[in-house]
Amino acid sequence: MKMGDGVEQAIHSVAMLSGLSEGGVLSAAALAEFHGVSTSYLLKHLQALSGAGILDTVPGPKGGYRLAKAPKEISLLDIVLAVEGSAPAFRCAEIRQRGPNPVSDRLFAQPCTINAAMLKAERVYRAELAKTSLADIGIELTAVDDGSIAARGCAFLEIHERKTAR
Amino acid sequence: MKMGDGVEQAIHSVAMLSGLSEGGVLSAAALAEFHGVSTSYLLKHLQALSGAGILDTVPGPKGGYRLAKAPKEISLLDIVLAVEGSAPAFRCAEIRQRGPNPVSDRLFAQPCTINAAMLKAERVYRAELAKTSLADIGIELTAVDDGSIAARGCAFLEIHERKTAR
DNA sequence: TAATCGTGGATATTTTTTATCCACGAATTG
DNA sequence: CAATTCGTGGATAAAAAATATCCACGATTA
Predict the structure, then answer these.
(1) In chain A, which among 53-112 make CB contacts under 8 A with chain B?
(2) Which nucleotide, over all strands, has the C1' atom closest to the CA of A5?
(3) In chain B, where the domains are located
(4) Which of B8, B75, B86, B146 to probe by mutation at the A interface, max A CB count within 10 Å?
(5) Is A43 near strand D, with its CB below 7 A from some atom of it?
(6) What is the Cβ-side half-sphere exposure of residue A67, based on CA atoms within 13 angstroms?
(7) pLDDT at res. B166
(8) CATH entry, B5-165, from 1.10.10.10, 1.10.155.10, 2.40.50.140, 1.10.1060.10
(9) What is the mean pLDDT of residues A44-60?
(10) Looking at residue B165, what is its pLDDT?
(11) What are the protein's GO molecular function terms (chains A, B) (predicted)?
């Protein structure tokens, strides 16, 4: 059972956006460069996030992505589901009903207790993720050239603007 | 995030073994035929289960697999970990430290809160799976030719014995 | 002693994930 | 108003896992 790398990229991207000042946006290219990952791949997840209503997009020059709602209203679960889809990790293939001696009688068509137990654990997992919001994650900080400390998103935004200003 | 199909096969196999009468065993071939899955593939998981101390093996003719301990002592988590490995689903690649502006200073080398939150959710998930034992799952029942009801394992064991008796 | 079973490693096959590319439409800047 | 910059969405290629198979070996029991 492995979670895709896209989830980590997505969460860090959203976390960085949550540290931006009012009106600030970051382009997909900037986010990808900042994290050292493939732009086209990150783009796919950013689109999933905007499709899920977590991010807003700002088209045109100076455009990019920003949060669609308050950090407090965005949970880790929201992000995970947007990127990985909402299908449960455990999929019961009802192998009870296969083979030469299946539990085929309607009388025995009661729900698979194994499936039930696995899904319950997954509900608990999701509930835990739902408890944690972006606000709980906190803003990642970084050191700037002048020795001060700033939110990573803001710091990189400046670097990026300086570059595009040339 | 998807859990391998092997998990379902493994759990059903173990559940079936828990329904056997004292001294009874089922061969890998029987378990595979019963569930309608590939023998060689199931074998891989059965070996993982015996390696993890969940199943015992009985070599020789009339040999096979049986539980290594009481159903109450075997949790779903034990089985999942034996088959899927114990690595967490979420692997933090520390992408904070990548890109042109990494959080590299020792001062900021505090643990990644995102990773912490994801791993906590996974601990909760595993704790829930650990709560459920084979005894809680119950024995799967099936209808037999003569109209009676029997544990699926026993029923198939008889079928299998009849076949090998020829 | 012959048949049966599990062991373990090597290997092929299939599926999924990851990653990339391109043509298009929309919005903004100058 | 035109050029630039951005996101959209589908198609596609490359890489990685999962799934499935095979074979030679050792152990056990009828």
Answers:
(1) 76, 80, 84, 87, 89-93, 95-96, 98-103, 105, 107-108
(2) C18
(3) 5-165
(4) B8
(5) yes
(6) 24
(7) 39
(8) 1.10.10.10
(9) 90
(10) 45
(11) DNA-binding transcription factor activity
